[in-house]
Amino acid sequence: MKFRIDLDVSSSQEWIDTVMSNFDEFLKDHANCERKASAMAMSFVAKYPDRVEIIPELIETAVEELEHFQTVYQIMEERGIQLTHEIGKDVYVKQLLDKCRDGREERFMDRLLLASLVETRGAERFRMVYEALDDPKLKQFYHELWASEAKHGEIFVRMALNYFDEEAVYKRLKEMTADEAVVLSSLPLKAALH
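The chain above was modelled as a monomer; its predicted structure follows.
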C-alpha cells in the first residue's frame, strides 16, 4: 500500500526564482501557512470528534505545525520582518476546497486527501527552497521542513484508509491530484507557498 502522493505537475523554476527574489515576503506567507495548517489539523478534531483513531495524530500534527510557525517567526524577528495583520485567503486551497464533495462521509474523505495534497505540495516546494538557499541555518530548517511535510502528506492518506475502502481512496486521490495540477497551473507567480 502506497501512502506517498505522486503530484501530476512539478513546481516551476519561475516559482522558485520568484520566491528567492523576495524571500522576506515568502517568509510572511510561510508563517501564515503554518498557522493555517495547525488550525486545519485541529478543525478535524473539532468537526470529527468521533474519529478517535486519528485524534492523537491530528493533535501531534497541529503541534508540529505550530512549532514550524514558531521557528518561521523567530527567523522573521531576526530579519526585522513583522507578521501580517491579516491572514489572506489562500486561493489555491480555496479552489481545491470548492472541488470537495458534499455529504458528511464524502467531504471527510476529500478533506483528508486535500490535506495530504497540500502537505505534499508543500514538501516539494520546501525542497526547492532548501536547494536554492545558501544560508546554512535557513538551509537546515527548510531541509527539516521538507521531511516533515512529506511525512504529513502520508499521514492524511493513512487516516483516510482507516475509514474508507482502499480502492475508493486511491480513485478519489487520483481525481483530486488531477484537479490540483489544474489549480496550481492557473495561479499567478508570487513569493508565496501557493
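The chain has one domain: 13-186.
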